[in-house]
Design brief:
The chain is an alpha/beta fold. The protein is built from 14 helices and 11 strands. Among the domains are: 166 residues, 3-Layer(aba) Sandwich (Rossmann fold), CATH 3.40.50; 103 residues, no CATH class. It is 51% helix and 12% strand. Strand 6 and strand 7 form a beta hairpin.
């Protein structure tokens, strides 16, 4: 299998790698690449633009036998590119020579550098003048493809626009390589994004699609190319459709949540309004300096009119209740203040004392110093509580109306999804992609004896 794989990659690159006596076809990816490199060399002459050519097979041998590196170099020279402006990464045999070579590329003295992914990947800092990068073949790992691209598309490149060329030969092993890259990239994208591809449309990674598109170009049968395109389109539509359904479920949950909040507001607002009216009828009296007069508090059946005595009694009342095991994360009544029942609680999580004032509605506050002033502040703000909750009710009703409009909306691309799904099913049946097409005598794959079944697969 390794031998077949190697030969498959070679013949996709140049058939002379299999047999040097075969002719040099003008339409090979090598010749197309040479044409592009020569054209860009001329177009970027004003600023000494540089180019990279990646080729993992057919490294230079210097023994007279055919190899793609020397073939490219000779053809570029024939098109007018000076030999001293063309270099192989393999010529740099140590770190010192590598740095010298890279410096010449950065300065524009060497304008075409040819090498493999391994030798010209990470650590190759030659981006300053790069205007184009050419992938003559494809490696086995998506990360290597990204390394190639990263030599040019990176900080420090003076060119705002660059060109990335990837070459493939139709009806060759190139299709298998890009199919493998597509599959690997789809797995990598799912892991790196930590998302389920069935729930989010954007989980179809752009790199995955680009590999699928290149793979399709390698295939000769137009139906297969159409199928690959439909696979991608239906996949995207299916995810968009799933995302639409998830959004509908989310809107339904949101509507139920808003309804629950509206119900609570409708229940509480009349209570708040009644409490506010009560406070208006029973306001606190003010002394000659305009300060509120403390009018007493009832604690455990005892009525206190002296503020200091009342404060000490109140503190003892709620601390005693807590020590007796009451009021731990649950409010316990201890008295009455200005017509409102007072209950206290000790929050063991935050280690704080809290209280509520209850009549028809319930109002919360934290306990601390001068608790009676705190209680007065809560009761004096009942008007703003009513206003705030009335406004909030109006906002909730408006939000519910907007959400309700969105619920039940059909998927905008449903017709397109159904049409393309149906067409894809037809292509799958014609191409027998699932191996279920009837064979001789009406025998299906499932009914075929093992030896015949193996032949069908092959």
């Amino acid at each position: 299998m390794l031998k077949l794989t190697t030969d498959g990659r070679k013949i996709g690159l140049d058939q002379r790698l299999i047999n040097p006596d075969l002719p040099d076809e003008p339409g090979t990816k090598v010749n197309v690449c040479v044409e592009n490199v020569a054209r860009i060399w001329n177009e970027s002459a004003e600023f000494n633009g540089t180019q990279l050519i990646f080729c993992d097979y057919s490294t230079p041998k210097n023994d007279g036998t055919f190899n793609v590196y020397d073939d490219i170099k000779q053809k570029l020279i024939a098109k007018g590119i000076p030999e001293e402006q063309i270099a192989f990464i393999h010529d740099a045999t140590n770190e010192v020579k590598r740095e010298e070579l890279f410096a010449k590329v950065r300065s524009g003295n060497i304008r075409v550098l040819i090498g493999s992914t391994q030798k010209m990947g990470a650590g190759t800092n030659v981006q300053d003048r790069l205007v184009a990068s050419h992938d003559l073949d494809a490696p086995y790992r998506p990360a290597d493809m990204e390394q190639r691209r990263g030599r040019m598309v990176r900080q420090g490149n003076k060119n705002e626009k660059v060109h990335l060329y990837r070459y493939c030969t139709k009806d060759t092993f190139d299709a298998y390589i890009f199919q493998m890259l597509e599959r690997k990239q789809s797995f990598i994208s799912q892991i790196m994004t930590s998302k389920s591809p069935q729930r989010r449309c954007d989980d179809i990674d752009e790199a995955t699609l680009s590999y699928a598109e290149v793979k399709a170009l390698c295939v000769g049968d137009p139906r297969i190319k159409e199928k690959m395109e439909l696979d991608n389109e239906v996949g995207k539509l299916r995810l968009e459709r799933s995302s639409h359904q998830q959004e509908q479920y989310r809107l339904e949950d949101m509507a139920e949540d808003i309804k629950g909040k509206i119900k609570i507001l409708k229940t509480n607002i009349p209570k708040n309004q009644s409490d506010f009216m009560y406070i208006q009828k029973h306001p606190t009296r003010l002394d000659k300096d305009g300060k509120k007069i403390f009018e007493g508090i009832t604690l455990n059946g005892n009525f206190y009119t002296d503020k200091k005595e009342a404060a000490e009694a109140f503190k003892n009342a709620y601390i005693t209740a807590i020590r007796q095991g009451r009021g731990h994360n649950d409010y316990v009544p201890v008295g009455e203040y200005r017509g409102f029942q007072v209950a206290v609680l000790f929050d063991s999580f935050s280690q704080t004392y809290r209280a509520t004032l209850s009549r028809e509605g319930t109002y919360h506050l934290d306990l601390g110093t001068d608790n009676f002033t705190r209680m007065d502040n809560v009761l004096d703000k009942l008007e703003s509580v009513c206003t705030d909750r009335i406004d909030r009710l109006a906002d909730r009703k408006k939000a519910l109306a907007e959400v309700t409009k969105q619920i039940g909306k059909p998927f905008a691309k449903e017709a397109e999804f159904q049409a393309k799904t149906a067409r894809l099913a037809v292509l799958n049946a014609e191409l027998d992609t699932d191996g279920k097409k009837n064979e001789q005598g009406g025998i299906t794959q499932d009914d075929t004896p093992p030896t015949q079944n193996k032949g069908v697969k092959r």
